[in-house]
Specification:
Blueprint: H1 2-20, H2 25-48, E1 50-52, H3 56-84, H4 89-112, E2 113-114
Antiparallel strand pairs: 1-2
Helix pairs in contact: 1-2, 1-4, 2-3, 3-4
Length: 115
């Protein structure tokens, strides 16, 4: 449910920025993904995973490191889908979210939080 909520927020913000505010799809993706990452951290910390394996500072640093890696993968995928495969940016965004979601969940469950 947390993942679905974050996807909805991410897509909503992306569409708002890209379609209605005419922001470049890569900038819109970066901004919407960053906000979704923050939401995901808050919800994951509160309701999904048990207390972290590490002290809060280390936990936050690990979460951010893996989130930044996921953000980089996400940016590369949406660029690839839009520029090379000529996919609509909204569909490219959704495909990138789905692919990166697996990476994000596994890394956070394995390396950041206790299962």
């Amino acid at each position: 449910m947390v993942g679905a909520l974050c996807v909805v927020v991410d897509m909503f913000l992306f569409i708002l920025l890209f379609e209605y505010l005419q922001v470049s799809y890569l900038i819109a993706n970066f901004e919407s993904t960053c906000l979704a990452i923050l939401l995901n951290y808050y919800i994951s910390k509160k309701w999904v995973f048990k207390s972290g394996k590490y002290k809060s500072r280390v936990e936050i640093a690990a979460f951010l490191a893996f989130s930044l890696a996921g953000l980089l993968i996400n940016q590369c995928l949406i660029w690839l889908f839009v520029e090379k495969l000529v996919v609509d940016p909204k569909l490219g965004k959704l495909m990138a979210i789905i692919l990166v979601a697996v990476f994000n969940f596994i890394t956070k469950k394995t390396f950041v939080f206790k299962g």
